[in-house]
Amino acid sequence: MAENQVNSGHPKGLYVLFVTEMWERFSYYGMRALFILFMTKALLFDKAFGSQIYGSYTGLVYLTPLIGGYVADRYWGNRKSIIVGGIIMAIGQFFMFLSGSFYEEVGFASIMMYTGLGFLIFGNGFFKPNISTMVGQLYPVGDKRVDSAFTIFYMGINLGAFIAPLLCGFFGDTGNPADFKWGFLLACGGMILSVVLFVLLKNKYIVTPEGEQIGAAPNSSREIKEADAVSAPVSVKTLVVWGIIWVVLLVALYFALDKDVIGAFIFSLTLAAPGYIISDPGLTKVERQRIWVIYIVAFFVIFFWSAFEQAGASLTYFAEEQTNRDVMGTTVPASFFQSVNAIAIVIFAPVFVWLWGVLGKRNMEPASPYKQAIGLFLLALGYLVIAFGVKGLEPGIKVSMMWLLSLYTIHTLGELCLSPIGLSMVNKLAPVKFASLLMGVWFLSTAAANKFAGTLSQLYPEAVVSLTTVENIEKEKTLHLFPEGFEKESATEVKGQKVIPFERIDLASISDKDVKENVVKELYGNQVENAKDFMGFSIVNLYDFFMLFVVMAGVASIILFVLSRKLIQMMHGVR
């Protein structure tokens, strides 16, 4: 055991998993930093459609860990699942490279993109839950280092997430749509490197304190060895009942969500899969209550990630269109801003490791539910800051990048309170035979959150100007408002009035001051008419949009904080 330790007191296997996950996250976040920009700038998808695809992709990415977790628990074990998943994801990134290479042929490029997304979705399902599960197995049961271990592991995730947008953005987000492919190719290379390092180092370092190989056998057989008993067989009746419930929910949500089949699939499974697990007849009363804690906290986590994951969609639009990105004569690519969260985590994660350690020694460390309530509060605070930054902002006016940097930094503090602690909580509360499967359920809540994030991103207020005004300006020959390849028929119809997205109009190039003022006035007036509604919340401008997240996350934080005392009781001594 001593040979497997380093000066920090953590097993060397933790750092093998750290590096493996770092390069996998480099691959994921490198592609994600470019994805929404690739769809809107290269394939020329509109924002609403791009947001829908983004939400469906990121939602499904976090849905498939449920499948991968089950296969690892019952059949393959963690190691095989990680290797297979990594190879599949590398293939997916290569298809994204092909999509970027043929972007001018939109039909073919779209097929390549959807194929690549499919490989990425299924590959992530095998990779993601299994590497997270192995972290906890490096330590003896009840070891107080586990929370710190997951925070260190989380640093690896975010080190990759920090490097990825900078490197992939530098080569891919150049302003030339032909260059997106190079960013995708770098993401492919990162995934290949992740798999190679894991294969070479796993046997030597990824072992238990007793020296046994971790993840070589299914978790169900590991439980049998530890408990010296055979778990109860799967109930066919329970499986059928929850299968029927899932189908009913799927059909109901399919029509309720206006035939969004992917959203219906994700949300229905988010409800049915946890129900099937909690109905397992082999669970004891204590195990069942602990699983309920995972479910309840996972529900509130949905509100966190649906707001947090705006980084890849609406906040990227905000960075591209409404943020002053000029620094010393150079324009910072919008994709670079997605590195802010990651570098802040690398900086602040050691602080949180130290903080939890100090509080733990004094028996003052907050239990997991309280930490996650604090995370939600900080998320709401971040959106409150940027909401004030854009209050009263007129169309076409850009704000200092400090507002966006402040939001990402505050969100990072919230993430450090919630995400690594959540992974640790699932690891400590889950029965061994459901270790990977319940980690999959945890990511299932993130799947629902990401799909919800795409839906919320479609509410991003897009300033518009009427087609009549555009035609009048053209007649005065002060500006040719239609970019090359843009047809008037592409104008969208809102409440009977044809409108054109405002960002297609370059106000700076309008020489006539009166014409420019008329455009802005009509533009601002149309915003009220074209307001978007969400559950009675009217979104007219950016201030309204950001305040939606303030209210959503703030209310969730308060409710979770109130429930935390009861949840701690249901954890039966696990902190």
UniProtKB/TrEMBL annotation:
One of its GO terms (cellular component) is plasma membrane. GO terms for molecular function: peptide transmembrane transporter activity. Gene3D superfamilies: MFS general substrate transporter like domains. It is a multi-pass membrane protein. The chain crosses the membrane at residues 82-102, 108-127, 148-172, 184-201, 239-256, 262-279, 291-308, 336-358, 370-390, 402-422, 434-453, 545-563. It is found in: Cell membrane; Membrane. GO terms for biological process: oligopeptide transport. Pfam families: PTR2 (PF00854). InterPro entries: Dipep/tripep_permease, MFS_trans_sf, MFS_Transporters, POT_fam, PTR2_symporter_CS. Belongs to the major facilitator superfamily. Proton-dependent oligopeptide transporter (POT/PTR) (TC 2.A.17) family. PANTHER family: PROTON-DEPENDENT OLIGOPEPTIDE FAMILY TRANSPORT PROTEIN, RESISTANCE PROTEIN MDTM, PUTATIVE-RELATED-RELATED. This is Dipeptide/tripeptide permease. It comes from Flavobacterium beibuense. The lineage of its organism: Bacteria, Pseudomonadati, Bacteroidota, Flavobacteriia, Flavobacteriales.
